[in-house]
Each structure stands twice: as structure tokens, then as C-alpha cells.
Amino acid sequence: MGHIIREYFPALTHRNYKLFWSGQIISLIGTWMQNAALSWLVYSMTRDGFLSGFMTAVQFTPLFAFSLFAGLIIERFPKRRILIFTQSMLLLIAFIFYILMYFNAITYPVILVLLFFVGTIQALDNPTRQAFVVELVEGKEHLLNAIALNSAAFNSARLIGPAVAGKVMADYGVRWCFLLNAVSFLAVLIGLLMMRMKDVPSKEELKDPKKEIKEGLKYIKTNPKLLYTVVSLVIIPTFCMNFNVLVPIYTKDYLLLKEKAYGILLSSLGFGALVGAIFIAAKGNKQRAVYFQIIGALGLSIFLIILGLIKSYKLSIIILILLGLFMIFFNTTSNSILQFNSPDDMRGRIMSVYSLVFGGLTPVGSIYAGTLAKYLGANNVFIISGVIGFIGFLILYTRRGKLIK
């Protein structure tokens, strides 16, 4: 077993990374339970695709507004301490959700307020976690392996969380998903507290915030590997990965099914993503990253179109598995390409740009998906998204020479 880990998953030989990774698996299951429960709850309350999309937009708007400034904080303060703070705040908000539901005090406007606070914390938490990985594995040698294992943890949770949420909602009620999410944050907090490392920031002082943000953006602009990866991240996640908005609408209104089917469909996406993440962890390397990125963009576009054309629950499960696989090919390698080409003293700023385009543009994608689903149906939005995703594929494919150098 030890030989297999050293050969295929060497990031797990680093004690600090193993603690972080183990805690994340448990915590992320809770997060996916909460995500699934929220999407189902809001669409059940409103029966309005636009309001479902608007909810997601509210959560991710702070990522758009604050991500670039978060990069400066990440470089100025120890990342482990930042994460202890952010994870504690997310635990508290999940518990507040539970309490409000327990007393039947939850309303759509209250959900929006709480999600805005969640998004504000995530604007700092997300890029910090991305930039923290290189410290956990003590350099770039095992970086892609660590990023892929993070994706495996994320998508194990995506596989387990929605299925459990569907069962919990059907049998016990939606509020229990939020309480279980709050408890799950303890796992990652314990892991962070158990780490042995020097809490040293990557920069001693912050001089001119605007100047340093511009410096990071200029560096991306002059590096083709960073620039074209960022451009593709603007297009593909924004328009092709709105599953949280579209899958509940697709399940209820197109397939005419209920909670358990919804949980299985979301978990199918997670299963495919998990398989993709394990494959990248075992077989991916710095040289192959661009090829996996291009294949991921193409596969995602094709199978979105196919999903919109079929009306079979069983076939939808298969297509969502394939969508998860190609989605993770694209996401994991895009992340690793940015990190491989980031200087240590600029990684916080570059990964904050990653968070900006990957998560910060989610409001645009959510409103796009929710609004079109309201008028055209979720199946037709999948088709349109696949066509848009093909544009992102063409950008990467036609510039593959500059990306591979």
C-alpha cells in the first residue's frame, strides 16, 4: 500500500497535506449536502428558475468583488491562520441556517443575506486554499498530484453529499443537511490545528495595493500559458458548469422526478469527476496538463449538447458521469497550469484571479442559466451551453503551441 501511495499519490506522503486532505473530504461532504439542500429548497419555495439562479449569483458576487484584494491578504498573512478563521465562519453560518429552519424563520430574502456572507468568506477562503497547496507539499514536484487529489476529495464529496442530502431531505427534513454541514467543518479545523509548520507569509509587507494588483494582472497578460488559461476559464466555467442551477429544474420539470432522483443525478456528476480526478492524480504530469485541459473542454461541450437532447433518466446518469469526468480534466489541469507558472511571491494574486474568473463570474453564469431555463427549459440551456463551451475549446486548441512550450 505504501508503495502505491508513493508511486501514484506522492502528495499523501507529506504529513501536513494528508491532514488537510483528510479533513477536506469530511467537510466537503457537508458542503455538498448543504448546496444540494439549498438548491432544492429554493426551487421548491419559489418554483422560479430565475430566483434559483439569482440565489447562486448573490453567493458568488463577493468573489467577483473581493477576489483580487484577497490575493494581497493571502500574501501578507499566514495561510493556515486565514483558513482557521474562514472555516470557523462557514461553520457558524451553516449552524445559523439550521437554527432558522428549526424555528421556521427561513425566507428567500434571509437565504440571500446569509449566502452573501458565505460568498464574502469564500472570496478569501477559496484562493487561500489554492495557494496553500504548494506549502503543504513543500514545493512543485508533487503539486499536480496534490491538486488532483484535492479534486478527488471535492468530487468524492460531490458524489456522496447530494445522494445523502436527497435521503436526509426525504426522510428527516431539509434542515438536517445544514446541521450536518456545520459539524463537518470540525474535521478540517482539527487538521489545520494539528499541522506542524511555520506560519510565515510570502511577503513581509503590503506597499501599494492597486500597484500590486496591476503587477499581477500584467504578469498574466505577458505569459501566454496564464493568459489563455484565464480566458478559457472565463468562458467554460461561467457558461458550462451551472449544474446546481439547472439539475433541479431539469429533474423536476423535464424528467418529472423527485428528491432522490435529483440527488442521484448530482452524485453521478460527482462520480465522473472523482474518476477523472483519480486518473489525473495517477497519470497526469506537467507535460500532459495542456492535453488534458483541451480534451476536457471538448468533452464537456459535446456531452452538454447530448444531455439537452435526451429525455431518459438512466441515460442522463451516464451523460452526467461523462460530464463530471471531462469537467475535472479541464478544471484540475487549468489550476495546475496557473500554479506551475506562478512565482512564489505572486501566487496569491494569480490564484485570486483564478478564483475571480472561476467563481467570481458564477453570478453571470447563474443568472444566464436560471433566466434561460425559465423561458426555454433546462434541456435547451444545456444545448446552448455546449455550443458556447466549444468556443472555449477552440481558443485552447488553436493556441496549443504556445501553451505546450
Measure the end-to-end span.
Answer: 36 Å
Do you know the CATH topology? Growth Hormone, Chain: A
Number of domains: 1
Output the CATH homologous superfamily: MFS general substrate transporter like domains
The average pLDDT score comes to 87
Count of DSSP E strands? Answer: 0
Strand content: under 5%
Low-confidence stretches: none
Shape: globular
Counting helices, strands and paired strands, the structural category is mainly alpha
Listing every helix as H and every strand as E from the N terminus to the C terminus, the arrangement reads HHHHHHHHHHHHHHHHH
Largest sheet: none
Q: So how many helices? A: 17
Q: In CATH's first tier, which class applies?
A: Mainly Alpha
Helix content: over 70%
Radius of gyration: 20 Å
| CATH architecture name | Up-down Bundle
Pfam families: MFS_3
Membrane topology: Multi-pass membrane protein
GO molecular function: transmembrane transporter activity
Domain Major facilitator superfamily (MFS) profile: 1-404
